[in-house]
């Protein structure tokens, strides 16, 4: 058997370099936020509290997320790694914290695909039943996009992002077009900036605060471009730009569309909206009946884009953790032809389907659309509890990293990260306090238990395999450290 050269072994561990430009990275972050899904389904969870002032809530959220993103952008500019948060926290705080961060990030990203399987399944089950009289179980509907997600991931990141770009473009066109039509009609009671003022909140400042807690869910995933750092051209420049551009673009879209929604409904109706409402279906019926099916298509394509992009992110995080010995070496394998982590893709795809089916079966049934919607609600809350501590840890890591480097900037590496920490801790506490019924009251304990498990794993590695923990987060898109680790590793490719 021909002995594998050092160059060949290094290449066998690498994802496809320079596969994407700035545009692809922007699509990764923007699409995972799901502009259509977040616009069509999320504001009504804020409106029982902030009512007609919900557009102002989204303005405040945009500012808060930009502050939070600043620390992540600073780290992405210095540490271009597909491990993203896992790498940042490892370099800024330490390997044990990095390992815990990797575990929390896994919860956040890995639960998004099964959550979307449940949402797309239940949404289309209801739509097909109401519009054409076809009765299909939500789980069967959800398996179709899940299978396509796995196929695209096996084909490579370019195929996934090309599909996401098309879907993202369609959903943005539909939701913005409908919003413009509402504005051109003058809405229900005329155009007004009142929804952008605190006085529009029916419950005052407390209503704004609570509405903010729910609206912030629309921005989860803004950092997804960081997981493409090893596949984007000039990652130290393009990844931070992608994060900033995607937050600004999608955030502005949210503000405009939610403002148009309130204008279209009228302040009184907006104050009566609740989480079970489907206001955009009603808006389409009132202002553009011909667009109702387009709304359904845009919502569905947005769910699928979120599914594809979140899957892309978690696959790459798991790949890096496997490559560094934090997970079984099977996760480090890269298909030599397609340059994709084949076994990681299959494992994550199977996980998504199984979790969606299990949660749905035990929370509403496999034939009742409630089962699918509960999958989205339960897993969505869980992944939020997972990602918020990651944002906190990353901003702590930003402060420590730049202090240790001797390149600390008071505003970029001090003031902004501290503000981000305070905002995200407050949001996390608010999320927990607002959920007072089971099973939501159980979920913080599930996350706490998961943190305990991964912390125990980090401690075990530090005692029994300190060399593995020592290299955590060290694999970069550039630099000799990556080559040294790659060439010293053993047993990366599974036996044939």
Description:
By secondary structure, the chain is mainly α. The chain has a single domain, classed as Amino acid/polyamine transporter I, CATH 1.20.1740.10. The protein is 72% helix and 0% strand. The protein is built from 21 helices and no strands. It has helices at 6-12, 22-33, 35-41, 43-50, 54-78, 85-92, 95-110, 112-132, 138-155, 157-184, 204-215, 235-265, 267-270, 279-287, 292-323, 342-363, 369-405, 410-434, 443-464, 466-470, 480-488. α7 packs antiparallel against α15, α7 (95-110) runs antiparallel to α17 (369-405) and α11 crosses α18. It starts with 5 loop residues before the first helix and ends in an 8-residue tail after the last helix. The model is unreliable at 6-15 and 473-496 (pLDDT under 50). This is APC family permease.
In short:
Its main location: membrane. The chain has 496 residues and is mainly α.
Write the layout of secondary structure elements.
Layout: H1 6-12, H2 22-33, H3 35-41, H4 43-50, H5 54-78, H6 85-92, H7 95-110, H8 112-132, H9 138-155, H10 157-184, H11 204-215, H12 235-265, H13 267-270, H14 279-287, H15 292-323, H16 342-363, H17 369-405, H18 410-434, H19 443-464, H20 466-470, H21 480-488
Helix pairs in contact: 2-10, 2-12, 2-15, 3-15, 4-11, 5-11, 5-12, 5-17, 5-18, 6-7, 6-17, 7-15, 7-17, 7-19, 8-9, 8-15, 8-16, 8-17, 9-10, 9-15, 9-16, 10-12, 10-15, 11-18, 15-16, 16-17, 17-18, 17-19
């Amino acid at each position: 058997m021909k002995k594998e050269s050092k160059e060949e072994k290094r290449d066998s561990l690498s994802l496809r370099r320079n596969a994407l430009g700035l545009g692809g990275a922007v699509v990764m972050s923007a699409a995972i936020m799901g502009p259509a899904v977040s616009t069509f389904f999320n504001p009504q969870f804020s409106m029982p509290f902030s009512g007609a002032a919900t557009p102002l809530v989204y303005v405040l959220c945009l500012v808060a997320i930009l502050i939070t993103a600043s620390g992540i952008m600073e780290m992405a500019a210095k540490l271009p790694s597909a491990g993203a948060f896992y790498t940042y926290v490892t370099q800024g705080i330490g390997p044990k914290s990095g390992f815990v961060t990797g575990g929390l990030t896994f919860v956040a990203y890995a639960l998004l695909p099964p959550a979307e399987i449940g949402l797309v399944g239940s949404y289309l089950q209801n739509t097909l039943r109401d519009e054409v009289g076809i009765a299909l179980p939500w789980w069967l509907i959800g398996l179709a996009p899940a299978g396509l997600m796995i196929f695209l991931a096996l084909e490579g990141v370019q195929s996934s992002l090309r599909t996401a770009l098309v879907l993202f473009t369609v959903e943005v066109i539909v939701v913005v077009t409908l919003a413009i039509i509402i504005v051109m009609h003058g809405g229900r009671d005329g155009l007004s900036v009142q929804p952008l003022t605190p006085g529009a909140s029916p419950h005052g400042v407390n209503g704004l605060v609570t509405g903010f807690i729910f609206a912030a869910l629309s921005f989860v995933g803004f950092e997804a471009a960081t997981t493409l750092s090893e596949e984007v051209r000039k990652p130290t420049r393009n990844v931070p730009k992608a994060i900033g551009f995607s937050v600004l673009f999608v955030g502005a879209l949210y503000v405009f569309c939610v403002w148009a929604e309130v204008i279209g409904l009228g302040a009184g109706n907006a104050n009566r909206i609740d989480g079970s409402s489907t206001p955009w279906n009603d808006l389409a019926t009132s202002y553009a009946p011909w667009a109702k099916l387009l709304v359904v298509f845009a919502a569905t394509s947005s769910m699928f884009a979120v599914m594809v992009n979140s899957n892309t992110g978690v696959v790459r995080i798991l790949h890096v953790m496997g490559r560094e010995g934090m997970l079984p070496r099977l996760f480090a394998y890269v298909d030599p032809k397609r340059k994709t982590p084949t076994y990681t893709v299959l494992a994550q795809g199977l996980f998504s389907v199984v979790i969606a089916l299990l949660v749905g079966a035990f929370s509403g049934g496999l034939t009742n659309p409630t089962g699918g919607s509960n999958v989205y609600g339960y897993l969505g809350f869980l992944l939020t509890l997972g990602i918020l501590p990651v944002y906190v840890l990353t901003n702590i890591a930003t402060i420590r990293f730049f202090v240790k480097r001797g390149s600390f900037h008071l505003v970029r590496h001090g003031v902004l990260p501290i503000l981000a920490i305070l905002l995200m801790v407050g949001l996390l506490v608010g999320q927990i306090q607002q959920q007072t019924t089971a099973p939501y009251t159980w979920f913080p304990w599930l996350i706490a238990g998961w943190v305990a498990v991964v912390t125990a794993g980090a401690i075990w590695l530090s005692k029994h395999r300190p060399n593995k923990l020592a290299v955590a987060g060290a694999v970069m898109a550039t630099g000799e450290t990556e080559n040294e680790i790659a060439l010293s590793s053993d047993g990366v490719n599974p036996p044939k």
